[in-house]
Give the backbone structure.
Amino acid sequence: MSIYVAAIGFGLVSASILAVSALGFNLTFAVSRTLNVGFIAFMLLGQFAAYEFQRATGDLWLGILLAACVSGALGFLLFEGVVRPLSKGEGEPFVLVLILLSFYTLIASVLDAVFGSGERALLVPAALQRPVHIGDMLFTVSQIIVMGCAFGLVLIIDAILRVTTAGRDIRAISDDPALARTKGVPVRTVSLAVWAISGALGGAAGAFLAVVQQSFSVTATGTYFVLITAAAFVGGAGKAYGALVGALVVGVVTQVAAIQVQSSLSPLIAFGVLVGVVLFRPGGVLGAANEGLRA
Amino acid sequence: MLNHRRSRWPRVTRTRHTSWRDARRGGLIVVSLLVVGMLAAGFRSPSKASRPSANQPSLRILTIAAFTGPQSILGAGSFGITKMAVDEINRAGGVLGHKLVITTVDDRGDPTDGAVALRQALATYQDAVAVTGLVSLTAGTEIPLAVGAHLLTIGASGATAFAHPATTLHADAKYLYNVTPPDELSGIAMGVALRKLHLKRPALVFTSSPDALPVLQGAQTAIQHLGIRTAITLKLTPDSTSYGTEVQRLIASHPDSIVLEVDPQTAGTFFGNLSTALSGKIKLPMLTDGEALQTTWLNAVKSTAGLLPILAREMRIVQTPLGGPARNPEFTHMQKVWNSYKIGLPIGAPFTPLHDIVTLMALAMTKAHSTDPAVFAPDMYKLGSKRFVKPGTAKAYTYVQGLHFLASGKPFVYWGGVGPIDYNAQHVIVSSFTVLHWTPTPGGAKTVPPAVKITPAELSLAIR
């Protein structure tokens, strides 16, 4: 088995989840010009909601779907209750970022108080834990399903952005909110929908992460935000496909790097890539030509 | 060069009135979120236990730990076990006529917050004689403050900085009594265990967290001195999505065993990846520490189909018997009292030795006829160390028994509920270790014989 090919396979699994997370992060950045540093809250809620829904329904994938809906509702509420009121006028963006950070702390504290800080696990049926060899790559059945769902979600969002009226409106707001408003685009409604979709993507990504990592807890997802931002900015902040490209770069590079260096250093490699991209292609690897939210 | 014209960041245009209004609205929301967050996080924290008897001068014990936040389990355990000892002492009339009281100090599991909170508590409570809690996570900032205030400092940290306290704390080291052996010692014990189990080519798998690295250093030191060859050393980033590549490297190095110290989340992912790579056929002896028997660790690994029985077969636990179940009446009594406190945790290490060391403090005060830590603390270890047991020396299991022996002048060693806690003259625990099999139980796991014993002499030989 070529360890390099195997590492690329492991990187694809990481990248698939990272792509969904970074896409959710990018969408809100594009329409609200807001760095949602509380994005991990959606993932956390998604994990715990999937856990509870799976226990209630006995179905893992239905549990994940319902969890995404719950996180989407949280995104809706976050926009209506916090982001929109604070986005009126020309307030300090820093205040909003601080509030979003507090929002993550709040959600984590509530989940800790309700569920405790111990480890939990989604019940992945034994049949889905079977190893599957594709060439020199090694996956489990559940990882293949997660990759399919994750990359599928990215393609669906891409299609929405490309061919639907809603997608056109989102891109218009991303390019110039004021102009979009004068052209009759319902900015508030579209932004609300985007925040809900971002929440749902975050919830789904959190649940996918719980499936792949085998377990989850209130504290374990905190450091993941660093990878999300790296993926988002490597691909190009505010770009839909950028999330996918950035996730592939970060996911695969960290796994391949782990062949030669201690795994504890692999995040530094990812950051090396991020710094390189920021220095030499500030618009992300997709290039500065792709200004605005592109599919 | 940054392309400002194409930047996605919004341009900030200051308008005095709207900016202030937004900031004020933002501030209100921040405050609201924080208040709700603190309420949510705080409603599980224990209440302060301060019940001095009327008209009695009190001696205060400060218990500093995380009482809110994700690490709040540490506060609950530290407080509960300290309270158990204090209640027992107060029921016997207190110490030299003083009642003991406890005041909890919340460090939220953060060393910086802990330093601020402890400084404030030290300034507020002039009647404090001792500080307990002080787990590894926060001990780095808190222990120096506590010993610097010349209070009896009962730590629960195996951190490297306190393995040789005289080097780091200088003259103030005499105030420190840790209830856990140095982390390096656990690593050295793992190295000796490899030798005893005739394992010659281990893979070392550790998380790159501050609490795991001293264990790794201890294991590497022992392995080098014992002439064992390491197949591979993997330092894992905690909470990664996948350790697939690391598992492939491990398999390619052809180890005959795995020595590991990984947190629950990392263990869940690592063993899931290992099981997938070996198609569920893991046949490698493994050595780890007692954390693997905790419910949260087991919860993390049991989601991988069929893994728990494999780990029960292949993995052995290297741990100090200190703090574990003891066969004496006091431990049985402690178990009953602990259960009546309804703390929600099983009795056991690392908390249980805290009960005995607080009791030892009270006996040392009585013996020295002083509540001044500078007087009673330096030689406190002599009352409780096994090395001072001679023919005719009695064993005191309880505070009342200890008081009785002190009154009668009979030589005794305080054995306590889980002891004796065998300190050397530097107040460092010189513990034996055992290597045990384990088996899953409905509520978690328990160790099962036969045990391979590692003596303190073998530990010192491994690094000579």
In short: The longest strand of chain A covers residues 131-134. The radius of gyration of chain A is 19 Å.
